[in-house]
Amino acid sequence: MAYWKNKRVLVTGGAGFLGEHVVKKLESVGCGSIFVPRRKEYNFVEMEAVKRVFKDSKPDIVFHLAAEVGGIRANQKKPGKFFYNNMMMGVQLLEEARKNNVEKFVIVGTVCSYPKFAKIPFKEENLWDGYPEETNAPYGIAKKALLVQARAYREEYGLNTIFLLPANLCGPGENINLETSHVVPAIIKKCFDAIKKNENKIILWGTGNPTREFLYVEDCAEAIFLAAEKYNKSEPVNLGTGNEVSIKDLAKLIAAITGFKGAIVWDKTKPDGQPRRKLDTEKAKKEFGFTAKTTLREGLRKTIQWYKKMHIEPFAIDNPALSDKIRKT
């Protein structure tokens, strides 16, 4: 597309789960220059690294996707790190963006910023109606603070900042470390681990009653790309499907697709997190024409296929019994 032909683009977090899909989208439209910094070379918590990345990339447009993220377990263990790292990365990148006269700064926030008991469906104007759910409040507030900074910088300096609020993501390439992973990859891993070990149950956190909304990662990348090209307002925009599913039903669906036939046991001593999540997605459709295309079942199927290919099949080659189990899933 002509818009991207001569653009120099910086994508923080461009080698991550969501970021790599955004980069692929930019490549597909012939973006002039795409700079993907790696954490080992550019630690954005340090201002020196932030200054250096702008010097090295000279961007017209910045996609800020880099974040310290994890599920409930990770948020509980390191709330200070989640707050500080996410706050410092965003604050410093925005400051250097305005100093370097960046044409546009795209911030990817989080659904965790919404109040714990926000009205269903979550509308963008409800973002400030209460405190986020306690287990991920430090992360959610750090991200929400960037919206305040973005608006302030637009008002004072004329920096074109936009702020996007995606639902929970799912898709190939997700983190599968149970210490830091989100709910979908955690359940997938537990199902396949149980199949491999001939175990007849898996144990999941909470009651299973809370609901979540899941957006397939490629759909999210498409939404971010469209917003970067077409949206130029300070008001935040939800990115999602508008559909919610209980964690209990999600677990049953993942078990069915993986082929796990055992019991799903809920550890009610563990936290549930936010009671419900469902986004109002009308603004994204109205402002830049985004509608999610991938159903939850299809997104889970693709994610599970990826998991099998990357984490099961390579180890099943020399294990006939495991190979037979996997063929049956």
How do the strands and helices of this protein lay out in sequence?
Layout: E1 8-12, H1 19-28, E2 33-35, H2 47-57, E3 61-64, H3 72-77, H4 79-99, E4 104-108, H5 137-157, E5 161-166, E6 168-170, H6 183-197, E7 201-205, E8 211-212, E9 214-216, H7 217-230, E10 237-239, E11 245-246, H8 247-258, E12 263-267, H9 282-288, H10 296-316, H11 320-327
Parallel strand pairs: 1-2, 1-3, 3-4, 4-5, 5-10, 6-9, 7-12
Antiparallel strand pairs: 8-11
Helix pairs in contact: 1-7, 2-4, 4-5, 6-8, 6-10, 8-10, 10-11
What CATH architecture label applies? 3-Layer(aba) Sandwich
What would the CATH topology be?
Rossmann fold
Question: What's the alpha carbon Rg, rounded to whole Å?
Answer: 20 Å
Q: What form results from the Cα inertia axes?
A: globular
Q: How far do the termini sit from each other?
A: 42 Å
CATH top level label? Alpha Beta
Structural class: alpha/beta
- Supply the CATH superfamily name: NAD(P)-binding Rossmann-like Domain
Strand order of the largest sheet: 2-1-3-4-5-10
* Share of helix, binned: 40-55%
Beta fraction: 5-15%
Largest sheet: 6 strands, parallel
Mean pLDDT: 94
Helix/strand order: EHEHEHHEHEEHEEEHEEHEHHH
Q: How many extended strands?
A: 12
- Tally of separate helices: 11
Residue windows where pLDDT falls under 50 for at least 5 positions: none
Number of domains: 1
